[in-house]
Amino acid sequence: MCDGQGRPVRLHLTAGQVSDFKGADVLLADLPDETEEVIGDRGYDSNRIRLSLAERHITACIPPKKNRKSKPPYNWHLYKKRHLIENMFAKLKDWRRVATRYDRCAHTFMSAIHIAASFIFYLKE
Q: Domain Transposase IS4-like: where (predicted)?
């Protein structure tokens, strides 16, 4: 998860075969109170995520999945800001250790991600 400037603020590591939807609960549970909107891709399209955000008065900008019967609207212009999270992942992958995942243990790999994210956060202008 990144802030409005594309700086990493929340990180959560899941297994490779786990969908984005399963890790979203952990990330969305501790959002700051001043959060106004959350932008996500189709992988986060679920009624449970949308409802939990609506209860906290947070705008969910998530395009509906193609196979969804009732397609909730989303702000297409706001969705264009999603490139910030993609850019953040690209910057994380500039770090060779993160991109190739040399570490076998999840906690060691997460430590490398945190070091890279710290540099990205404080060097981002």
A: 2-109
Closest CA relative to residue 1, chosen from 22, 24, 18:
24
Cα angle at 99 between 35 and 28, to 5 degrees? 20
pLDDT, one tens digit per residue, over 19-42 is: 777 778 888 888 888 889 999 888
Q: Look up residue 97 and give its amino acid.
A: R
Whether this prediction's pTM lies above 0.70 is answered by yes
State the Cα angle at 109 between 104 and 111, rounded to 5°. 145
Q: What is the pLDDT of residues 65-84, one digit of tens each?
A: 999 988 888 899 999 999 99
Handedness of CA 42, 61, 93, 24 (dihedral sign): negative
Torsion (CA) 109, 119, 27, 81 in degrees, nearest 10? -130
